[in-house]
Design goal:
The protein is mainly alpha-helical and about 525 residues long. The chain contains 20 helices and 11 strands. α1 links the parallel β1 and β2. The structure holds one RNA strand of 75 nucleotides.
RNA sequence: GGCCCCAUGGUCUAGCGGUUAGGACAUCGCCCUUUCAAGGCGGUAGUAGGGGUUCAACUCCCCUUGGGGCCGCCA
């Protein structure tokens, strides 16, 4: 038995991002599937950072990836900042591990030095491509004599190490969602397992293992039982399996999940708009909604239920049921799912999220100014803040289900947080073109000064004024909304006015109507 | 160019030889209504094409077409 399959061994899976950018939507789903598989099987979810290419890694992306994973609720059992017996979990800290296995491969005759320069290889590849031939490495350094080696060394060439692929035979593996996949070894070329660091461009990379090599060593040493990763790695799999076999390691079970595509059917990337998890967080998408949407991209427990709690996902996640076909990312459905979560969210929590959003967007201050003056007033500030929160809670309440993502607060509630209402001149004058409407607004401005300012009275007053002028209620409601909020859409007008308050309402009626006259 | 993967409405999917091909998003219409949402009701829309196998194919096999991936001293 060469693989972990059927061995009743503790499931161990890993997500292995390279810290060269932000967490991508596709990466997030790969992480999610790994995490769900681990949790479903009561196994271990490992986070390993593949930072071998030091030229391309940066600290800030590592932090944001960790932050995004945590935000999504994908906690890891082993990895950065977490105990584990299979560390270190940064590839850059595992460099002393790899030479040993390179040596073993040499001893077993599976490895050899290659003196071809990147430039030469590039030229040959381009030539092959132009002749419509397979561009792979031709194996010319496989059997170099010591004379030739000396000659190359004398030229100052630093060799890379390549893995020798068997000339004959086929390499097959079973993929949990695709079944048997077979590759003819003849079609595989000898790939580099240890970089040479020969040129200036590559300085700093010398002697480092390549992805295909380090990945296998790390997975084997970390006793990864199931490799769950993107579709794009299928072609790499036979090479990796051959490495496992050459080294006598137990092979993992493979699961290649389909890619997430953009609207045009090409793999989701920056040019399709925003693909970083961080962006969705900033826009006010909820982590549970994003997770819910992502899991539906390729997996459905029954094809009926759309809203799934994480506990249910864990309970029902059968990885063999993951779809084979790629899925197109659809932000409309994500938005719908988000709105479903928002509809059922506790008002206090929703309000907190809105406040958080408003603060980060600069629409409101995080705390009253008095806060910074002295401790003695901070108690009063707390009260003030509590009052602010109650107010915002009411605003959130009247906006209701219109809030599909938190940032929708801007389209529906911005007029509560600023006095600088921007009017479109054309819109405004068309709204106020009717003499009776202008008259009505003027009357309302007077009446609002003296009525009891709650939404029932406000509504009554507006309707009365409209009737007295021989207008339909909506003929005055729409202009009134526009003058007060600068928008043609929004929550219930009368409740909005009540929340806006008498003073601001009257002031805006004055400014709004003055603008046109 | 070679090899590999994939194929149910615009999108995500259910289906696992016999179904009026189900659900959801989006879309359209109507109702509700102060706008926009929400909600209710209803509608449009799908098995890529061609061959087999079978009493019977969305379902199994082959080919074609289409889409994607890999063929890096990137991961």
């Amino acid at each position: 038995m060469k693989s972990w399959e059927g061995q009743n061994k503790m499931v161990r899976v890993r997500f292995a991002p390279s810290p060269t950018g932000y967490l991508h939507i596709g990466g997030a789903r790969t992480a999610l599937f790994n995490w769900l598989f681990a949790r479903h099987n009561k196994g271990v979810f490992i986070l390993r950072i593949e930072d071998t290419d030091i030229l391309r890694t940066d600290e800030s992306s590592l932090e944001s990836i960790l932050e995004d994973l945590k935000w999504l609720g994908l906690d890891w059992d082993e990895g950065p900042n977490t105990e584990g017996n299979f560390g270190p979990y940064f590839q850059s800290q595992r460099q002393e591990i790899y030479p040993k296995y390179i040596k073993i491969l040499f001893e077993k005759g599976y490895a050899y030095y290659c003196y071809c320069t990147p430039f030469e290889l590039e030229q040959r590849r381009n030539l092959a491509l132009s002749e419509h031939k397979t561009p792979g490495y031709d194996g010319r350094c496989r059997n170099l004599g010591s004379e030739e080696k000396k000659k190359y060394e004398a030229e100052g060439r630093r060799p890379a190490v390549r893995f020798k692929i068997p000339d004959e035979g086929k390499t097959e593996f079973r993929d949990l969602i695709r079944g048997e996949v077979v590759f003819d070894n003849k079609l595989l070329d000898d790939f580099v397992i240890l970089k040479s660091g020969v040129s200036a461009v590559n300085s700093g990379r010398g002697g480092l293992p390549t992805y295909n090599f380090a990945n296998v060593i790390d997975d084997a040493l970390m006793e990864i039982t199931h490799v769950i990763r993107g579709d794009e790695h299928i072609s790499n799999t036979p090479r990796q399996i051959l490495l496992y076999r050459a080294l006598g390691f137990k092979e993992p079970v493979y699961v290649h999940i389909p890619l997430i595509l953009g609207k045009d059917g090409s793999p989701l990337s920056k040019r399709h708009g925003t693909v970083s998890v961080g962006w969705y967080r900033e826009q006010g998408f909820l982590p549970e909604a994003l997770v819910n949407y992502l899991v539906l991209l390729g997996w459905a427990p029954d094809g009926i239920r759309q809203i799934l709690r994480v506990e249910d996902m864990i309970k029902e996640f059968i990885i063999e049921r993951v779809s084979k076909n790629p899925a197109i990312f659809d932000i409309d459905k994500l938005t719908w799912i988000n709105s479903e979560y928002l509809k059922n969210m506790d008002p206090d929590k929703k309000t907190d999220l809105v406040i958080e959003y408003l603060v980060s967007s600069g629409a409101i201050c995080s705390a009253p100014m008095s806060d910074v003056i002295s401790d003695s007033v901070s108690e009063a500030s707390e009260l003030h803040r509590g009052a602010e929160k109650d107010k915002i809670k009411e605003i959130v309440n009247i906006i209701g289900d219109r809030l599909k993502i938190i940032s929708d607060i801007e389209t529906y509630g911005s007029f509560f947080f600023t006095d600088e209402i921007k009017y479109d001149e054309t819109e405004l004058s068309s709204k106020l073109s009717d003499e009776k409407v202008r008259k009505g607004l003027a009357v309302l401005k007077e009446k609002f000064a003296s009525i009891m300012f709650d939404h029932q009275n406000i509504e009554q007053t507006v309707r009365d004024v409209a009737r007295e002028l021989g207008l339909k209620a909506k003929d005055i409601i729409h202009p009134l909304r526009y003058v007060l909020t600068g928008k043609t859409v929004g929550p219930s007008l009368f409740e909005s006015i009540a929340l806006l308050g008498r003073e601001k309402t009257i002031a805006r009626l004055k400014i709004g109507t003055d603008t046109i006259f």
